[in-house]
Amino acid sequence: MEKEWNIIEVLRHSRHDWLNKLQLIKGNLDLNRIDRAKAIIDEIVVESQNESRLSNLQLPAFAALLMKANWENYLFQVEYEILEDTNAIRVNERELVTWANLFFDSLNASVAMEAENLLAITIVPLKEGARFFFDFRGIIKEKERIEQFLIDVSRFAIETSVKEFTEHELAVEVYSP
Known about the structure:
Elements lengths: L6 H24 L3 H23 L3 H8 L9 E6 L10 H18 L7 E9 L2 E9 L5 H10 L6 E7 L3 E8 L1
Parallel strand pairs: 1-2
Antiparallel strand pairs: 2-3, 3-5, 4-5
Helix pairs in contact: 1-2, 4-5
């Protein structure tokens, strides 16, 4: 069951993230690590640009899923990048969000708790739809669960293809017309 986020919770989490980033910058400045402080600022700028591009896709449910993913209790961190600046893409958002939620749940139940797990999502807008690349790096303990997920989601109208699948990597490409 997906958690319903109210505006106060969203603002609380957002404020917490910003305070952490500011503390990192301040700490590096206090230690006279100017280059590291500048690098953190550059990372914040790139993150904000991707957040803006994600918002411009006009896929509000999918954007919300990605923006709040790191506030959920997943055993992996989520990063995302949108390769082109575009105003909107046409996809079946309901199916995409359902697929992504099922994928996140399957991945979360399959990875090692003690590992540094990262899911990088790259979005490539196209004239008729979009390609989504889900690249996981970490430790997968239960490959069978993910294999079953991949079988189960074959009923969706979006195309899913596995590019790589080992105990430490999973690369899945999704095309949504």
